[in-house]
Specification:
By secondary structure, the protein is mainly alpha-helical. It folds into two domains: about 200 residues, Alpha-lytic protease prodomain-like (Up-down Bundle); about 120 residues, 2-Layer Sandwich (Alpha-Beta Plaits), CATH 3.30.70.1350. Helices cover about 65% and strands about 10% of the residues. It contains ten helices and three strands; from the N terminus they run H-H-H-H-H-H-H-E-E-H-E-H-H. Strands 1-2-3 form a three-stranded mixed sheet. Strand 2, helix 8 and strand 3 form a beta-alpha-beta unit.
Length: about 325
């Protein structure tokens, strides 16, 4: 299953790479026909698409490689680096586009054959939108940042090209050539924002920043499938490396259980989490023995060592489960209140 998913990701990013090469050629031909600065800006940005898609293809190939001695957690983090690399390239391209737009405002040049050039741009919008949407959809399913980053890049390219078509229409209607350079300025600013967003997400991933959406998904899985034997979960940490998910936590179980039963319960706990994730999932669970304070929120009915009657459940949420302390502290506070 995992092998098929990796191959599918590679085919999708290869499609993006080939399409980017062809569409970049079309945009430069449209610039040759029109001498439009806005179209040139769009074509220059498409060079970034080619480079980024090529690097994304390599990163997805590398992230699919199995763990080895030097990379015990796998190679999935390369996808964060790929997204950051793509974001940095986008920001650099946006700076060149803005500089060129300012120069053309100061030194205007004639524009021609706008209708013919716009036809090529409309075709690139259609292709980029279809491929970009596919990459985004599949990237979210596979939790692949490289696919998502490339998909967002293509979608932003479609939006910027659509803005370009609007500016061309305004030039044809009004005859004001300066609209071309102003559109390039807006285009450059739009690209800079998208590039910064990608780079920021990449840095957060490389620094193992908490993904709140992913954490909440894991917490909801635990809540939905909570068993009576799972007395307490704490010190929960969730990290995504490419399509691989890494989870570690402390699970409180009855202290009088035999090792075999503890092992089976932890195994079932891990399978519950794995069944709710499409990619490879690696889980490390530290078993903690219960304390007498846990009796207040423990639901094991036939517990032979219970010292206190059950009082109330503790609602599991991400704020509680990530703490490195047992939940009986909060239970004690609630009971006192």
């Amino acid at each position: 299953m995992q092998i098929n998913q990796n191959k599918r990701k590679q085919r999708l990013i290869l499609l993006s790479f080939v399409a980017s090469i062809l569409l970049t050629g079309l945009k430069f031909f449209a610039y040759y026909l029109t001498s439009s600065n806005a179209i040139l800006s769009d074509a220059l940005e498409s060079i970034i698409n080619v480079i980024a898609s090529g690097f994304a293809f390599y990163s997805i190939y590398l992230s699919a490689q199995p763990k080895d001695r030097n990379h015990p957690y796998g190679h999935g983090k390369i996808e964060f680096f790929s997204a950051g690399f793509e974001g940095a390239l986008i920001v650099i391209a946006s700076l060149f586009i803005i500089i060129e737009a300012v120069q053309r405002l100061m030194n205007p040049a004639p524009i021609q054959n706008l209708l013919q050039g716009s036809g090529f741009i409309l075709f690139t919008i259609l292709v980029n939108t279809v491929i970009g949407y596919k990459l985004l959809t599949e990237g979210k399913k596979a939790n692949s940042l490289a696919l998502i980053a490339d998909g967002r890049h293509l979608m932003s390219d479609s939006v910027s090209s659509a803005i370009l078509i609007v500016s061309v229409g305004l030039i044809i209607l009004t005859g004001y050539d300066w609209i071309d350079s102003v559109a390039s300025l807006f285009f450059g600013a739009f690209l800079a924002y998208n590039g910064f967003q990608l780079a920021s997400k990449s840095v957060a991933g490389l620094m193992d920043a908490t993904d709140e959406i992913l954490l909440e998904k894991v917490v909801q899985t635990l809540k939905k499938n909570k068993k009576k034997d799972w007395i307490d979960v704490h010190n929960l940490r969730v990290q995504q490396y490419g399509s691989d998910l890494h989870i570690d936590c402390h699970l409180t179980l009855p202290y009088y259980w035999e090792l075999q039963k503890v092992h089976e319960t932890i195994h079932n706990f891990e399978n519950t989490l794995k069944d709710n994730h499409t990619g490879e999932t690696e889980i490390f669970v530290h078993a903690d023995p219960c304390l007498f304070q846990c009796c207040y929120f423990c639901r094991i009915d036939d517990c032979p060592v219970r010292q206190h009657a059950f009082v109330q459940d503790i609602e599991w949420d991400s704020a509680k489960l990530v703490k490195n302390e047992k939940l009986y502290t909060e239970a004690k506070i609630n009971i006192q209140e």
